[in-house]
What we know:
The chain is α/β, with parallel strands linked by helices. The protein is built from 10 helices and 8 strands. Strands 1, 2, 3, 4, 5, 6, 7 and 8 form an 8-stranded mixed beta sheet that branches. The chain starts with a strand and ends with a helix. Keywords: Cytoplasm, Hydrolase, Protease, Serine protease.
Amino acid sequence: MKTLKFNGVVADNSDKEVYDWFGMECITPKMVSDFLNEAAGEDVTIQINSGGGSVFAGSEIFTDLSKYQGKVIAEISGICASAATFPLLAADKTGISPIGQVMIHNVSTIQRGDYRDMTDASKFLLGSSGNVAELYAKKMKVSTEKAQKMMDDETWFNAKEAVEAGIVDEILFEDNHSVKMVASLSPVLSPEKINQFKNLLKGEKKSSGTIDVHFDDEQMKQLTAMIDEKIAAVKAEIQVNNLADKPFKNQKFKPMFGGIN
Protein backbone atom coordinates (compact mmCIF):
# COMPACT_ATOMS: atom_id res chain seq x y z
CA MET A 1 0.00 0.00 0.00
CA LYS A 2 1.41 3.39 -1.01
CA THR A 3 1.58 6.17 1.60
CA LEU A 4 1.51 9.93 1.05
CA LYS A 5 2.90 12.22 3.75
CA PHE A 6 0.24 14.95 3.98
CA ASN A 7 2.46 17.36 5.93
CA GLY A 8 2.65 21.13 6.29
CA VAL A 9 0.47 23.87 4.87
CA VAL A 10 -2.32 22.96 2.44
CA ALA A 11 -1.28 25.27 -0.39
CA ASP A 12 -2.35 26.15 -3.91
CA ASN A 13 -0.16 24.67 -6.65
CA SER A 14 1.25 28.05 -7.65
CA ASP A 15 2.36 28.82 -4.07
CA LYS A 16 4.57 25.76 -3.57
CA GLU A 17 7.74 27.51 -4.77
CA VAL A 18 7.45 30.11 -2.02
CA TYR A 19 7.08 27.54 0.76
CA ASP A 20 9.96 25.56 -0.79
CA TRP A 21 12.13 28.68 -0.74
CA PHE A 22 11.52 29.08 2.99
CA GLY A 23 12.12 25.37 3.56
CA MET A 24 8.54 24.99 4.82
CA GLU A 25 6.61 21.79 4.21
CA CYS A 26 3.42 22.04 2.18
CA ILE A 27 0.98 19.79 0.38
CA THR A 28 -0.73 20.79 -2.86
CA PRO A 29 -3.49 19.36 -5.07
CA LYS A 30 -0.89 18.51 -7.72
CA MET A 31 1.18 16.53 -5.22
CA VAL A 32 -1.90 14.52 -4.24
CA SER A 33 -3.01 14.09 -7.86
CA ASP A 34 0.46 12.89 -8.93
CA PHE A 35 0.52 10.45 -6.02
CA LEU A 36 -2.89 9.01 -6.91
CA ASN A 37 -1.96 8.71 -10.59
CA GLU A 38 1.16 6.80 -9.65
CA ALA A 39 -0.83 4.55 -7.31
CA ALA A 40 -3.08 3.67 -10.27
CA GLY A 41 -6.01 2.29 -8.29
CA GLU A 42 -3.94 0.60 -5.59
CA ASP A 43 -5.14 1.14 -2.01
CA VAL A 44 -3.46 4.21 -0.49
CA THR A 45 -2.82 5.74 2.92
CA ILE A 46 -2.86 9.51 3.47
CA GLN A 47 -0.78 10.21 6.59
CA ILE A 48 -1.78 13.64 7.91
CA ASN A 49 0.21 16.08 10.02
CA SER A 50 -1.03 19.50 8.91
CA GLY A 51 -2.56 22.63 10.39
CA GLY A 52 -4.55 23.29 7.22
CA GLY A 53 -4.42 26.15 4.73
CA SER A 54 -6.24 26.99 1.51
CA VAL A 55 -9.88 25.92 1.37
CA PHE A 56 -9.83 25.77 -2.43
CA ALA A 57 -6.72 23.57 -2.46
CA GLY A 58 -8.30 21.39 0.21
CA SER A 59 -11.53 21.16 -1.80
CA GLU A 60 -9.61 20.03 -4.89
CA ILE A 61 -7.80 17.40 -2.83
CA PHE A 62 -11.13 16.23 -1.35
CA THR A 63 -12.54 15.85 -4.87
CA ASP A 64 -9.58 13.83 -6.16
CA LEU A 65 -9.63 11.52 -3.13
CA SER A 66 -13.41 11.04 -3.40
CA LYS A 67 -13.10 10.06 -7.07
CA TYR A 68 -10.16 7.71 -6.55
CA GLN A 69 -10.94 4.13 -7.58
CA GLY A 70 -8.90 2.41 -4.88
CA LYS A 71 -9.45 2.36 -1.12
CA VAL A 72 -8.34 5.52 0.71
CA ILE A 73 -7.22 5.28 4.34
CA ALA A 74 -6.54 8.51 6.24
CA GLU A 75 -4.27 8.35 9.30
CA ILE A 76 -3.61 11.32 11.58
CA SER A 77 -0.02 11.10 12.76
CA GLY A 78 0.06 14.50 14.49
CA ILE A 79 -2.26 17.45 13.97
CA CYS A 80 -5.18 17.52 11.54
CA ALA A 81 -6.83 20.92 11.49
CA SER A 82 -8.94 23.13 9.27
CA ALA A 83 -8.55 22.29 5.55
CA ALA A 84 -6.32 19.34 6.46
CA THR A 85 -9.45 17.55 7.72
CA PHE A 86 -10.86 17.30 4.20
CA PRO A 87 -9.12 13.96 3.47
CA LEU A 88 -10.97 12.54 6.49
CA LEU A 89 -14.24 13.39 4.74
CA ALA A 90 -13.21 11.60 1.53
CA ALA A 91 -11.52 8.53 3.04
CA ASP A 92 -13.04 5.05 3.28
CA LYS A 93 -11.46 4.53 6.70
CA THR A 94 -9.83 6.91 9.18
CA GLY A 95 -7.53 6.47 12.17
CA ILE A 96 -5.67 8.70 14.60
CA SER A 97 -2.49 8.37 16.61
CA PRO A 98 -3.13 8.18 20.38
CA ILE A 99 -1.47 11.61 20.67
CA GLY A 100 -3.11 13.07 17.57
CA GLN A 101 -5.32 16.17 17.51
CA VAL A 102 -8.20 17.24 15.25
CA MET A 103 -9.61 20.76 14.95
CA ILE A 104 -12.55 22.08 12.95
CA HIS A 105 -13.58 25.72 12.52
CA ASN A 106 -15.20 28.12 10.08
CA VAL A 107 -13.76 29.21 6.77
CA SER A 108 -11.95 32.55 7.06
CA THR A 109 -10.45 35.10 4.70
CA ILE A 110 -8.81 38.52 4.53
CA GLN A 111 -10.97 41.20 2.91
CA ARG A 112 -10.65 44.93 2.30
CA GLY A 113 -13.24 47.39 1.09
CA ASP A 114 -16.45 49.12 2.04
CA TYR A 115 -19.59 47.66 3.62
CA ARG A 116 -20.65 46.11 0.30
CA ASP A 117 -17.40 44.21 0.00
CA MET A 118 -17.69 43.06 3.59
CA THR A 119 -21.27 41.93 3.04
CA ASP A 120 -20.25 39.93 -0.02
CA ALA A 121 -17.34 38.39 1.88
CA SER A 122 -19.66 37.45 4.75
CA LYS A 123 -22.09 35.75 2.37
CA PHE A 124 -19.24 33.83 0.78
CA LEU A 125 -17.89 32.72 4.17
CA LEU A 126 -21.34 31.69 5.41
CA GLY A 127 -21.91 29.64 2.27
CA SER A 128 -18.48 28.02 2.34
CA SER A 129 -18.67 27.21 6.05
CA GLY A 130 -22.17 25.82 5.55
CA ASN A 131 -20.95 23.48 2.81
CA VAL A 132 -18.16 22.18 5.02
CA ALA A 133 -20.57 21.83 7.98
CA GLU A 134 -22.77 19.53 5.88
CA LEU A 135 -19.77 17.29 5.15
CA TYR A 136 -18.78 17.18 8.82
CA ALA A 137 -22.40 16.45 9.78
CA LYS A 138 -22.54 13.53 7.36
CA LYS A 139 -19.25 12.14 8.63
CA MET A 140 -20.18 12.51 12.33
CA LYS A 141 -23.84 11.55 11.80
CA VAL A 142 -25.14 14.71 13.47
CA SER A 143 -27.31 17.60 12.33
CA THR A 144 -25.80 20.33 10.17
CA GLU A 145 -26.67 22.82 12.92
CA LYS A 146 -24.65 20.86 15.49
CA ALA A 147 -21.69 20.57 13.13
CA GLN A 148 -21.89 24.31 12.44
CA LYS A 149 -21.95 25.03 16.19
CA MET A 150 -18.75 23.00 16.64
CA MET A 151 -17.16 24.98 13.82
CA ASP A 152 -18.31 28.26 15.38
CA ASP A 153 -16.65 27.20 18.65
CA GLU A 154 -13.39 26.13 16.93
CA THR A 155 -13.59 22.65 18.41
CA TRP A 156 -10.51 20.59 19.25
CA PHE A 157 -10.59 16.81 19.71
CA ASN A 158 -7.98 14.54 21.21
CA ALA A 159 -7.85 10.98 19.90
CA LYS A 160 -10.58 9.62 22.17
CA GLU A 161 -12.84 12.62 21.59
CA ALA A 162 -12.36 12.41 17.81
CA VAL A 163 -13.55 8.79 17.78
CA GLU A 164 -16.46 9.55 20.12
CA ALA A 165 -17.51 12.45 17.88
CA GLY A 166 -17.34 10.22 14.81
CA ILE A 167 -14.93 12.39 12.84
CA VAL A 168 -12.37 9.55 13.09
CA ASP A 169 -13.16 5.83 13.02
CA GLU A 170 -10.50 4.40 15.32
CA ILE A 171 -7.44 5.05 17.46
CA LEU A 172 -4.26 3.54 16.06
CA PHE A 173 -1.99 1.44 18.28
CA GLU A 174 -4.68 1.19 20.97
CA ASP A 175 -2.37 -0.86 23.18
CA ASN A 176 -0.31 2.30 23.75
CA HIS A 177 -1.25 4.87 26.41
CA SER A 178 -2.90 7.97 25.04
CA VAL A 179 -1.11 11.22 25.81
CA LYS A 180 -2.81 14.58 25.44
CA MET A 181 -0.56 17.20 23.85
CA VAL A 182 -0.67 20.78 22.60
CA ALA A 183 -0.12 21.49 18.91
CA SER A 184 0.05 24.77 17.04
CA LEU A 185 -1.18 25.58 13.55
CA SER A 186 1.29 25.89 10.69
CA PRO A 187 2.19 29.49 9.79
CA VAL A 188 0.22 30.07 6.59
CA LEU A 189 1.42 32.83 4.28
CA SER A 190 -1.36 35.14 3.06
CA PRO A 191 -2.04 35.42 -0.70
CA GLU A 192 -0.74 39.00 -0.63
CA LYS A 193 2.57 37.93 0.92
CA ILE A 194 2.79 34.95 -1.44
CA ASN A 195 2.58 37.32 -4.42
CA GLN A 196 5.15 39.70 -2.92
CA PHE A 197 7.61 36.87 -2.36
CA LYS A 198 7.01 35.56 -5.89
CA ASN A 199 7.85 38.98 -7.29
CA LEU A 200 11.03 39.06 -5.23
CA LEU A 201 12.02 35.63 -6.48
CA LYS A 202 11.50 36.84 -10.05
CA GLY A 203 13.63 39.90 -9.37
CA GLU A 204 10.74 42.33 -9.79
CA LYS A 205 10.58 45.46 -7.64
CA LYS A 206 7.36 46.36 -5.95
CA SER A 207 6.48 50.04 -5.64
CA SER A 208 6.23 49.77 -1.86
CA GLY A 209 9.77 48.47 -1.58
CA THR A 210 8.91 46.61 1.62
CA ILE A 211 7.24 43.42 2.74
CA ASP A 212 5.06 43.58 5.83
CA VAL A 213 4.62 40.11 7.32
CA HIS A 214 2.87 39.62 10.67
CA PHE A 215 3.30 36.40 12.64
CA ASP A 216 3.24 35.66 16.33
CA ASP A 217 6.55 35.64 18.25
CA GLU A 218 7.23 31.93 17.87
CA GLN A 219 6.43 31.89 14.14
CA MET A 220 8.57 34.99 13.69
CA LYS A 221 11.52 33.28 15.34
CA GLN A 222 11.14 30.29 13.03
CA LEU A 223 10.88 32.45 9.91
CA THR A 224 13.79 34.65 11.00
CA ALA A 225 15.99 31.60 11.52
CA MET A 226 15.08 30.28 8.06
CA ILE A 227 15.72 33.64 6.41
CA ASP A 228 19.09 34.03 8.21
CA GLU A 229 20.08 30.57 7.05
CA LYS A 230 19.17 31.41 3.44
CA ILE A 231 21.06 34.72 3.57
CA ALA A 232 24.14 33.05 5.08
CA ALA A 233 24.11 30.45 2.33
CA VAL A 234 23.87 33.11 -0.39
CA LYS A 235 26.68 35.16 1.20
CA ALA A 236 28.88 32.09 1.42
CA GLU A 237 28.24 31.30 -2.24
CA ILE A 238 29.05 34.88 -3.27
CA GLN A 239 32.25 34.83 -1.22
CA VAL A 240 33.37 31.58 -2.82
CA ASN A 241 32.66 32.99 -6.29
CA ASN A 242 34.54 36.21 -5.52
CA LEU A 243 37.57 34.28 -4.31
CA ALA A 244 37.50 32.17 -7.45
CA ASP A 245 37.42 35.27 -9.67
CA LYS A 246 39.97 37.34 -7.69
CA PRO A 247 43.63 36.97 -8.78
CA PHE A 248 46.04 35.60 -6.25
CA LYS A 249 48.48 38.10 -4.74
CA ASN A 250 50.95 39.26 -7.40
CA GLN A 251 49.30 36.95 -9.94
CA LYS A 252 49.52 39.65 -12.66
CA PHE A 253 53.30 39.67 -12.32
CA LYS A 254 53.74 35.93 -12.79
CA PRO A 255 54.39 36.14 -16.55
CA MET A 256 57.38 38.35 -15.77
CA PHE A 257 58.87 36.46 -12.84
CA GLY A 258 57.78 32.97 -13.65
CA GLY A 259 61.23 31.71 -14.59
CA ILE A 260 62.31 29.85 -17.70
CA ASN A 261 60.46 26.71 -18.79
